[in-house]
Each structure stands twice: as structure tokens, then as C-alpha cells.
From TrEMBL:
InterPro entries: LTTR, LysR_HTH_N, LysR_subst-bd, WH-like_DNA-bd_sf, WH_DNA-bd_sf. It comes from Methylobacterium pseudosasicola. Residues 28-85 form the HTH lysR-type domain. This is DNA-binding transcriptional regulator, LysR family. One of its GO terms (molecular function) is DNA binding.
Amino acid sequence: MAIVILKIRLFGIFDPEFQDGLMRLTNLDMDALRSFVVGVEAGSFARAADRLGRSTSAVSAQLKKLEEQSAVALLRKSGRGLTLTDAGETLHAYARRLLSLNDEALSAVRGVDLEGWIRLGFQADFGEMVLPQVLGRFARAHPRVRIEGRIARNDELMDKIASGHLDLALAWDDGTASATERVATLPLCWLGASEGAPLWNADRGEPLPLITLEAPCVLRTIACEQLDRRGLAWRIAFVSPSLGGLWAATAAGLGIALRTPIGLPASIGMLDAVGHGLPALPSLGLMLRRSDQGGNPVVDYLAATIRQALHETLDEAWLTA
């Protein structure tokens, strides 16, 4: 019986209708897919054209081609802009995966002989959000490269880069980043427990209970400076050596913390600065710093992988072109 079934299935392969169906399959244009994804995530196809180094008309032509290949409308007008149709939402999800696999394949082919050892440092904020996909993607593309990873505080990352104990580090900009090193500029925000009573009332003259990491800490310094400039009294309510401890204390309602929106647990929410009588905050640069001056292909490829992961993870408005 198994042999008969196998013969039937093999016969189907040579059936003219089956072969005709294969011939009618359409291969989506990768360049058009990239323009589509960049346009959606940039919020504007004009901005996408600028980022891709193409004219707006060229990007529009690619999107039209993509709709013709898909045989369905991907975008619809919404006010003065465009929004995705249901089919567009579906294709956007697939397009991101296709482009990721395409870029990973090219990286693997071009770096097929890549081997060696690299030491990578990360801020804890990005440990769960970016690090897994960076390590997984790079390891699949370059299996002969051994990665030694370290999640650490900013000062430690900078010290180890300076001393040559790390090859590459994703760290907060301490004011020393060059234009090529800065990869993003992230907003800072005041944080409190998602549920519970207000943590602090400025009208009662209470000092603000501040939750921070141990000094030295870039964000702790910013929080204290901003409160001092506003003339607000504050006290250190909780100090943690780790980001996990800071999250726990904030979720428990022990005080207010300052951080970026990256990696916030569900138990913690961003506070409205005006509504809570808190000062407005500046932005904070994110840099990708290396200990060498270039020329190491292993570091080059890992840096490119990190940049790609950040472009897929962070808000487009935060990224440095």
C-alpha cells in the first residue's frame, strides 16, 4: 500500500497542472521588500527613500511593484498618510523575517572563513531585548567564532574597552562618543509602579524618594542633576547593584526611578512628568565602542549584527542614520 501511495504522489509531480502551478509562483523582490519595511517602520516613505539613498518616486515604484506581485493592496490612505491593510500587516511580518534571513545568509557567505575569538560587553538594559538575537544570529552565521559575553555597568564596560579586555561594547554615551560610535539617542523617563497610590506629592513638601543603581551611574547622576536644577528635594530611598533590584524596588512602590523605556517590566510604568511635578528630561546617547581602530573582520561583522538588531528592535525615531 505504501508503494502505491508513493507512486501516486510521484505521478502528481509530473502532472502538467501541478507544474503549471509551480511556474505561476511569484518571487517577491527583495529590494522592494526592504523599501516596504523601512517605509513602514520609518513612518514615511519619503524618510525611507532618504535612508535608502533613493528618490521618493523610486521607492513608490517599488511599492507599486510589490502590490502587483502580491496581487493585493498593501496600503490605504489615512488622512494625509498611509496605513497598512490587513494584507500589508501580514506581509510586513513576513518581510522582516525574509530580510533578516537574507542578511544573515549574506553575512555567513561573505564571512565563511571567519574564525577567532571576540569579547562583547552589553548594558543590562539590552540583555533580554537585543543580546539573544545578536548572539544567535552571529553564531549561526559564523560558527567558528567564539564569543565571550559580559553584561556590566557602564563604567566597567568603558574601563574594559580602554584596557583592551573587551573588543566591543554597547554602552551609554558618557559624552565621549564620536559620530560613528553613536547608534541611537533614547528618551529618558521617570518610572513608578504600574499600580498603587501616588508615590510622591510635591505639594506636601516631601523629598522625592529616588531609586537608583549604585554610584557611579550615568542615569543616577542625570536624575540628581535634573532634580537639583528644578529645586526639588530628594532622598535616596533604595540603592541596587543590579537592574533587577532597581526594577523590584520600583514595582514595590518604594520610590521613583529614572531610566529609558527599554526593557521595562509590566509591573513598572512611565510617569507623566508634568502631572507628577517632575522635571522634563534630556535624551541619552547609546554608543557602540570598540577597543581597536578597525580592521578586525570579526569585530566588524559583530558590530554590523548589533546595529541590525537595534534597527529591528528600537523605535525608528531613536536611531542614528
